[in-house]
């Protein structure tokens, strides 16, 4: 039972990060019908930027409180990633809105490799140690089940940001404009909505969430490198598909479900495979879920079935 509870805690931590990144995927897809496969690299840029800022602050102001140092690093990373998200939309995707669907998809994959290569040139190929600015001493919950302050911060901050985004989309004028743009671009323009600005802001908001997620991943594992965003990006895409891509609540549910399945599966995979596999094969669960969802329920858990009229 302690093992199961520990894996549930781990799953909530990982699932919170997946959900945060998945929101960026689902916002862009809901408005443009575009899968931004470069979104995982935005996660990486956020982590590496924060690492760079922390290193600079440690040299300039070594006596600064660790939490202030982390807060400044996150703020700079968010600004940098928001600017990157805007540039991606403005320079790459905006020109392809009326192009065949394959063109934006290939462009997104190309952007992903471009950002990875630029990061590799700038920060190198090796792993970088990410400073642990939040206490990492484990806190016992019950029995042998433990959680660290970093993991508590990840869950709480992710919940607040996801809740804030859902309120923004469902309760504000900007949210109504976003939903109108997602429903029909041309009609939204006729109603006075600046669809270009709404689409750009969707990329910017998604990139800001990705920056925070990148810092969370680096803080939780203590390392960062140029390719760290690739696998979380793919898993967040899986979470978005699982929940119903284009549905914000679905992205949150999909991320949490995927995190729990992956963590519990990793805890018991050795028993399930009779010793042939170990926890390093935990990625199999994410992509097995993706295949099953695409086969049996392509619309996802919370997606709506839409019928085409002849």
From TrEMBL:
One biological process term in Gene Ontology: L-alanine transport
GO cellular component: plasma membrane
Highest taxon above the source species: Bacteria
Transmembrane segments: 12-35, 42-61, 67-87, 99-123, 150-169, 190-217, 237-261, 273-296
Gene Ontology MF terms in the entry: L-isoleucine transmembrane transporter activity; L-leucine transmembrane transporter activity; L-phenylalanine transmembrane transporter activity; L-valine transmembrane transporter activity
Protein location: Cell membrane
Annotated keywords: Amino-acid transport, Cell inner membrane, Cell membrane, Membrane, Transmembrane, Transmembrane helix, Transport
Main location: membrane
Membrane-topology descriptor: Multi-pass membrane protein
Family note: Belongs to the binding-protein-dependent transport system permease family. LivHM subfamily.
PANTHER family reported in the protein's UniProt record: BRANCHED-CHAIN AMINO ACID TRANSPORT SYSTEM PERMEASE PROTEIN LIVH, HIGH-AFFINITY BRANCHED-CHAIN AMINO ACID TRANSPORT SYSTEM PERMEASE PROTEIN LIVH
This protein's name: Branched-chain amino acid ABC transporter permease
Species, as recorded: Nitrogeniibacter mangrovi
């Amino acid at each position: 039972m302690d093992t199961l509870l520990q894996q549930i805690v781990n799953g909530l931590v990982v699932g919170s990060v997946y959900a945060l990144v998945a929101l960026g995927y689902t916002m862009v897809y809901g408005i443009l019908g575009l899968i931004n496969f470069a979104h995982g690299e935005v996660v990486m840029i956020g982590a590496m930027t924060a690492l760079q800022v922390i290193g600079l602050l440690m040299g300039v102001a070594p006596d600064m409180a660790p939490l202030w140092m982390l807060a400044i690093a996150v703020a700079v990373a968010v600004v940098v990633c928001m600017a990157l998200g805007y540039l991606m939309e403005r320079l790459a995707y905006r020109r392809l809105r009326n192009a065949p669907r394959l063109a934006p998809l290939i462009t997104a994959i190309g952007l992903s490799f471009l950002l990875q290569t630029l990061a590799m040139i700038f920060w190198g190929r090796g792993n970088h140690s990410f400073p642990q600015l939040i206490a990492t001493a484990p806190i016992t919950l019950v029995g042998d089940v433990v959680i660290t302050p970093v993991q508590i911060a990840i869950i709480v901050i992710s919940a607040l940001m996801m809740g804030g985004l859902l309120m923004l989309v469902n309760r504000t004028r900007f949210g109504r404009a976003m939903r109108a743009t997602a429903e029909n671009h041309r009609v939204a323009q006729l109603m006075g909505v600046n669809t270009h600005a709404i689409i750009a802001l969707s990329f910017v908001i998604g990139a800001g969430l990705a920056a925070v997620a990148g810092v969370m991943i680096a803080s939780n594992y203590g390392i960062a490198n140029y390719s760290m965003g690739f696998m979380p990006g793919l898993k967040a895409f899986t979470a978005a598909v699982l929940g119903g891509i284009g549905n914000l609540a679905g992205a949150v549910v999909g991320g949490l479900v995927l995190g729990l399945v992956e963590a519990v599966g990793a805890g018991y995979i050795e028993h399930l495979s009779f010793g042939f596999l170990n926890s390093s094969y935990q990625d199999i669960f994410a992509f097995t879920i993706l295949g099953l969802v695409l086969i049996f329920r392509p619309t996802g858990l919370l997606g709506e079935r839409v019928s085409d009229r002849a």
